[in-house]
Every structure is written in C-alpha cells, then in structure tokens.
Amino acid sequence: MSVFLRAGELECALTDLAEADSTIQSPSSALLTKVTDLIAQALLSPERTREIATTASALMRQVDCPATVQVSPPEGFCFYALHPFDYVECARNLSLSASGEVLVIGIRSMGTTLSAIVRAAVMQRTGHEAQARRITVRPDGHPYDRTLNLKEHERETILDHNGRSALFLVVDEGPGLSGSSFLSVGDALTALGVSRDRIRFMCSRHADPDALVSNDAAARWRSFNSIVASPTRHAPNSDVVPISGGHWRSRVLADAKYSSTKYRDPENWPAVWEQLSPAKYLSKDGGVVFKYEGLGRYGAAVSKRTQIVAEAGYTVTSSVSRNGFAAYPWIYGRLLSTDDVSSELLRKISEYIAFRSRAFQVGDAEPATLEEMARFNFDLLAGREMNRNFQLAVERPVIADARMMPHEWIRVDDTGQLLKLDCAAHGDDHFLPGPVDIAWDLAGIILEWQLSEDARDFFLSCYEQASGDRPRPRLQNYLIAYSAFQAGYSEMAASAIGISDSEESRRLIRDRDRHRRELIKHEAEHMAQPTAAMNRTPQLLTPPSPVLLT
Questions:
Q1: Is the pTM of this model over 0.85?
Q2: Is the distance from CB of 156 to CB of 77 less than 8 angstroms?
Q3: Which CATH code for domain 2-228?
Q4: Between residues 139 and 257, which one has the greater pLDDT?
C-alpha cells in the first residue's frame, strides 16, 4: 500500500510537470501511469505480486525523473481515514454499460491514485485490460469555480471511448465546499458529446447539492449521477467503540477520575470541529486507543515523531496498527485545565518545548503564508488593516507540536508524571502553521493556558534556560499570528456547523471571541511597544496558581 501511494504521488507530479511544458504526455509520466496501474493490480491480486513487481521494476528503470518534484499530500489518505479499498467495493458494485467499456478519469492529485485502484477493480470484473482505460486531468481556476481545459490527447481518448458507448467514471475524494472540480470534468465531458447517463462521479462523501457554493452548483450536480464510496477500513478490528469527533469528551471529561472540576460543565469542554477530527476508537476493554494517523509514509512519519517524544519521556509510545491507525495505551490520569497552572507545571512544559526545539529542527520555515493568514484574519475579525510592518522572524524552525491546549496534557495517576498527548500529527498536517519557528508553541502555551504576565515571564525564563534560545523579541508577532489562526479556525468551524444555539457552536464562538480579544490586544501592543511586555522581571508561582486559517 505504501508503494502504491508513492507511485500515485510520483505519477501525479510527473504528469503535472509534463503538462506545464507540453501539451502531450512525456514518456516518463506515461511509464509511471503503467507502474501505478500495475501496483494497483498487485493489491487486488496478491498471488501476482512477484510477476507484477518484476514488470514494474523494469518500467521504473526507464523513467527519467528530475532531481526534485513538487507533490501535494493526499489529504484523505493522510488525515481522513480514506482507504483506496473503499473505492474497490464501489467499483465492484457498478452497473457497466452494454459495451463493457470503461474510461476512468482521475482528478489530480488524489484522483490519480484512486483512479488506478478503480481501474484495477473494473478489470477484475471484466477480465479484459483493454476494456478499462485510465487518464488523469487537472482542473484549474478559483477553488469555487474550477474549469477543465482538456489536452489534445485527453480529448482524443474521450472521443474514442464515447464512440464505443463507454461508461465514464470521474474519480476523486470529496466533493469539497464547491464541487467544482467534479462539475468541471462533467461539463467538459458533456461538451464533447458524452451523455450524462454514462457519467458517474465516484466520491468519498455525500454532497448536499444546495450547499455547494460554485455557480449554479445545485442544478449542475443533480444533472449527473454520483456514487459514494462507503468506508470499509474504519478500525483495526470491529470490536471497538467510536470516540471520534469529540465523543471522547463525554467519556473522559464528565468523569471525576479523569478531569478537573472545571470540565464537569459541558460549556467548558474543548471545542471540536467534528468533520475535520481524525478517526478515533477505543478497544472494548478500554485499554487501547486507535487513532488514524495516515497511510504509508505519512503515518510512518507521525509514528516516528511519537517514538522520539516517548523516548525522551514526554509521552507514551504507540504501535503501528492496520489501515493507517496507530494504537496507544489508555493512560489513567487527569487531564489538566487552566486551573492547574503552577511554577512546577510551567517548568516542565518549558523543558518539553526546549526539547522539541532541538529534536524536530528543520532546514527552514517560510513564514509568508502565516503572515498573509494573520493579516487576512485580522482584517476580518478586527474590521481594520493590521500594522503593515508585521513580520514573523524565524530563528529556530521546527515541526511544532501545535496542540498546546491544557486538555492535551495529563497527570498520570500512579507516578504524577506529566505527559503530552497528541504530540506528533498536528505540526505537519493540512492546517497551518507547517514548519515554523518554535515561538509558535511558546505562543500557544501563553494563550491557551491564559497565563498572567508573571506566569508568562516565568515560563519564558524557564524555556530560555533550558534551550539557550532568546525568543522574546520575535514572540509578540507569534502571539498575533497564533490568535489570528485560532480565531479564524473557530469562526470557520462555527460557520460550517451552522447551528448557532448548539453546544458545539457556543464553544466555538467562545473560543473565537477569546482569541479575537487576544489578537486585537497583542496587535495593539505590537504597534505601541512591541517588546516591553515581554521583558518583565519573572516571579515564582506557588502551585496550584490559577492564572486561521483562511
């Protein structure tokens, strides 16, 4: 499976590269298409693996790859527990046309890999390779108004199959908010004379046509037939309890054994954007948590980061399970809240962040996207433009933890040890920040734990002593960027949920308003005297002491 995902990525990258330089397929991208198809066949016919591997390896030796290519992470495989075999079941249940001919059209990027597995499944049904062909296309334009300009070889392939009354399968994850990628392909097919009744959209989720935001989307979507791939690879085993989408909260936070008094009121629970939360399951005996972390190399990278943090004593180790899931032992302890702030706690947290500043260094971090996000979100949330001199300095670029909320820390029952939960996935996922200065995590602690000025200064002094870093001159702007991201994220989530009087919406609006206040406050401090607030004399605290995303 890992090799299959990698082949799909490389095929997509080489095809994009070829189309940027020419209107015809390059020999290498065509060879990679054959390789991806072969590996897909091996997945569905394991008894042919050796034979297929020999053929694929011979083809790969003919591929002329540039030194580097640019790829986009396949979000469904990385974050949303989408499995290629979900589409296999979907393809096996299709009603084929009378001719038995099928043209599978993958929408790059994700559709590259998915189209290969769909073609392999159709081939198994028909028994004839010639009856199942595959191409991939790349719609472009605004995300809410994609259009597809077909290349000449794509037009010829479509016209040829239309003349043979083929079934056209348009394959991708989604649809997203607009559905415009699927629709652009459907429109391009009908413009070439393909009958709508021979076009099928193969999707990963059900779409509400009235909620799609592209031009005339509802009527256009309803004019096509769409089929949804049902999840087939949810959890490593069937005897589990789903705790995804915040459902873990009613099991943990409402229990006095696991949480502070503050969390007994559901209004104080952490907010969750359910649709974008990774899949989680609990074993029937309550001893193991299964969390989706990604197929192939994506899940392997998360697992490696977890192992590094566990070896340093800051979390528990995980084991790789099936279908992109990792298995974590259930930790018996108490989740923390802002009421738990103390000198001892802040010292431990500062040591953890100092450790990350050394262990997860990267070559560089590009702050331009974060700066753009902060300005854009500030304009929307504050109703005015932000200081034009706003810049994010990068001195210690890392893969951040990016989950500094109090409930992501647990005090173990037996030993009193402080452990960090969810410490490996979010610093390199489909949200900002991406590779970033370690100041992002420092800002996260200050803002999420709602530290007083004395607590903040004590915390920063502990971090400076543990790391040798001097983050204060650059930290003010990271407080702005972090607040802008979290306020924007909460606003988007609340809008997506759309029920203003629901408990979840109220929690999200609560977080949005808190981060918006912090955003406006820190931007004002930046304009007035950007470093003064960060250089007060630290004072010890006595435990316990209360204290976008575009």
A1: yes
A2: no
A3: 3.40.50
A4: 139
